[in-house]
Amino acid sequence: MYVQRLELSRHSSTTLRDGFLLTTSAQITAIHRVGIKHVWIDELKGVRAVNARPWFGQLPGLSAPPASAADDGIDSALENARQICLDGTLQMKQIFSDARLGKILDPLETLPLVESVIRSIEDNPTVLLGMAQLKTQDNYTYQHSVAVCALMIALCLQYRLPQETLQFLGMGGLLHDLGKALIPASILNKPGRLTVAESAIIKQHPLLGVAMLDPDTTPPAIRDILLHHHEKIDGGGYPFGLRDTAISRYARMAAVCDVYDALTSSRSYKAAWNPAAAIRNMATWKGHFDQSVFFTFVKAVGIYPVVSVVRLASEHLAVVTEASGASLLHPKVRVFFSLLTNEPVPARNLDLAIPSIGDSIAGPDAALGWSSTGFPGPEVSLSRNGAGYAPQRQQEREWEG
């Protein structure tokens, strides 16, 4: 991996510098020795590791289960998903660059990418949805676009929509934030609260995005998603303050997908929420979403979505590896940490839907500082209340997808 930036504390004293290719265990040891716990990597500069084992095989102190035919299939699916995310990031970066130069976009140019996403979601929805959650700070906007595309397609499949509609809505999800190409980065990435003037500027991006689309080749569904994905059922959204049935079902679908991915991603002004916590809190936002669409979305991603960190009744922490299926409350997980001994355990896979397993989910958990990707990482600020764990907002600023 290419290390773009080291997360040094203010008291760190080291000769290590940002911007290098991580190739040896000695480098990893040096990073740990000076107390660095988080690094930013640049996937575009890294060496493609086709045979890398997923998730826990590379974590210090943890060992992956023995390889099997099923593992080979998952490895292949992970590599395919990783390549789709990489290709999507590069294409969106080029689209945004062209938009800043005033080029009018034909949405059908994105069809090959969208079809790749559709095939991946149809084959194994959990893999691409999980991979799409892994984002870097510098490429957030482009990676967010790919993630919303994947979420839209997963949601569309729940409705069993025709193939052509599936393609159009995937393109709409991919391009939903096109207008942000013309919003200053100083506003998009501002750490603190936006001023009234800055908020007014960012709320123009739906209108700016629609203006960049070729009117002769853009299906109405795509225009609708770009223009209305920030509208709310209670009329409190923008840019038009539409209410209830004035908002199309496609725009309502995009609103849920956009918000979910924004909440579960780290931004300059907030930490990422655990996916399960995001689902639970979104369910309490009355007047924001179409409740029917939201519940269908939950069926698509699961009550405990892929890469959620959960606490089991056995007092272990586990990461959700497969969330969809007959039982949303009993996903497949990979156990990696014991809360009783406060130390890692050899990773093992559990299907909680099998009664003989004798374990169940007690609740989402990030109390030990495990990030929403399942790796030790930036802590999600949590507090205990009567309902369990609840994320605390990091800044007095409404998030922006």
TrEMBL record:
It comes from Candidatus Sodalis endolongispinus. Residues 379-401 are annotated as: Disordered. This is HD-GYP domain-containing protein. PROSITE patterns: HD_GYP. NCBIfam families: HDIG. Residues 117-313 form the HD-GYP domain. InterPro entries: DUF3391, HD/PDEase_dom, HD_GYP_dom, HDIG_dom. SMART domains: HDc.
